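Write out the bound-state structure for adenosine monophosphate.
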Amino acid sequence: MKQAGIVIEMENGRVKETSLGMITLAGRTADSLTAMVMSGITDDITDHLSEYGVHTIVDLSLPDAPEIRRNPAVQATAVVHAARELKLDRILGLSSPEGKDLLPRVAALLDAPLIMDCVDADLKTGTATTSQYSGKMMAKIQLTGEILMFGVRPNAVLPESKPVPAKTIAMTMDAVVPENIILLSRDEADTEGRQSLAEADIIIAGGRGLKNKDNFSLIFDCAEKLNAAPAASRVAVDEGWVPYAFQVGQTGEKVSPQVYIACGISGSIQHFAGMKTAKMIIAVNKDENTAMMANCDYQVQGDLFAILPEIMRQL
Amino acid sequence: MQIYVCVKHVPDSAANIHMIDNRNIDDSVPFLMNPYDEHAVTEAAALKKQIPDSEIIAVCLGKKDAESTLRSALAMGADRGVLVETDDMCDSMTTARVLHAAIIRDGGADIILTGKESIDSEGMQTQFRIGALFDFPVVTNAASLEITNGKARVGCELAGGRTRTYELTLPCVIGAGRGLNTPIYPTFPDVVKSRKKPIETVARSQLNVSDAPGSAKIISMTPLVQKRNPRKIIGTPAEQAAEIIRILRQEAKVLS
Ligand SMILES: Cc1cc2nc3c(=O)[nH]c(=O)nc-3n(C[C@H](O)[C@H](O)[C@H](O)COP(=O)(O)OP(=O)(O)OC[C@H]3O[C@@H](n4cnc5c(N)ncnc54)[C@H](O)[C@@H]3O)c2cc1C
Ligand SMILES: Nc1ncnc2c1ncn2[C@@H]1O[C@H](COP(=O)(O)O)[C@@H](O)[C@H]1O
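---
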């Protein structure tokens, strides 16, 4: 029996789409699905999770104090506790920014193998498909051990409805508040109303072609109009036009949106490493002979300073 | 302070990777220090400036040629290097066990710096496993680090400009992110000086490392080449913009 535990991520009180996709992926090969929820359970959450095929919903019952509840070291001990109590032998979570700080902690505590950023996973055979060599290769990996862990790339699988009855249980555990790692603050101010890179359907990215920081606001404005996430090449980051968190590529975020619009980006091997799995690539570049233009779905040869304002005007 | 820095020898990020069979890459490409580990070494050198009688020891698990990555660490400011030599591909459960054993054999750590991930295996986890083996607290993707009174205050980047600030007791493990600093580019005299610094080579079998209770093994690998056939969108900027919007609405169906 493959008993899968799925770490659920929420946004504004709702289960994230990307978490539902992960449930769909797990449901293909697991015998039972247990959702682990950290924020408390509402009827809405229960309905939503059972609609997508979750059999059991566990409230991890984390302490109320936000600095304790949000400490990933505390969350990791709660997931470990639930995994042991419920005898879960597969654990999945998103390879999201939060997941990258949580899943490896759980894996380290359980001393269990973990593959991050999976685009596919078979929980029966214990195999996973993930990128390696910074997005240049796809590797199939065999995991062995008592408990196997998978960090699933957001949007790798789209959610499919599969209603089942779900029961809810609450974990009772004394949260051990670690003394050696204290979360002092968590700043979320900057993300209000902005799409996260890993989860956006559309990403619009700017590179050296934007020429300076002031011009880069064109990318942000366009992103807002398109309900897209703004992103950047490393040059734009190194020049100080945008913070590092916006960088896509080998040493930045790896993204797989439905559409990636690259504006004034030449398409270096390191940039492609972060976005080559986009379903559709639209390249806006004044030079036809760049790697990005050679390796996209739609080539838009022209001046981005003429084309982007037109897009905004026409929306 | 005893500062340990874990550095991995990885293919140059600009290299094209080719396969020799369905599991192994052609490793005749140039190899360099993992880019995130450069930030870790740079931070170690900054800490040593701040706390003068510190020693920086760079540790690497890899093949014989990985010595060149340790040499780079020495040129960037590390005092000594330890190479645990193996020809095997090690997964992160084993790697963490080996690095843990190598650090214990060498001495005691006050702080262990790593990169946030390696660009070849993209594990994102070795730092957490080392931390668990030592029972030290761990943070990853550090963008700022300050050490005062035996405590480390670390700012870590999440995404989209979000950060988390932690206070860790020493000893601790810190995974460096790109926001932490600008890597040192060693000068020629630094390189010359580094040639005199010692690198100790230890065979993996010399370390008493117990088997991990699990493993992750590559069973096959394929190059991710996505051949796309570009179609041109032509016309005036206004016509091009209209066509882009049409594609987003009707083909990609991502815009209402
Ligand atoms: C270890 C390492 C890691 C790296 N990691 C990354 C990474 O994670 N992400 C990353 O992006 N890079 C990374 N790089 C850097 C990478 O090698 C390239 O330098 C970088 O991607 C180039 O950025 P760019 O395309 O914005 O700039 P350029 O290559 O300079 O391209 C600018 C493009 O803009 C076009 N252009 C100019 N003006 C206009 C206009 N008005 N309208 C339309 N088009 C215009 C030009 O034709 C050109 O094609 C890394 C490098 C190293 C060594
Ligand atoms: N073979 C190795 N030798 C030394 N350090 C390593 C090795 N493998 C991983 N590390 C360290 O662990 C970090 C995370 O690696 P990974 O878990 O593979 O993404 C790297 O940035 C290195 O600092």
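---
The domain at 2-207 of chain B is CATH 3.40.50.620 (Rossmann fold).
Chain B touches chain A through 85 residues (CB under 8 Å).
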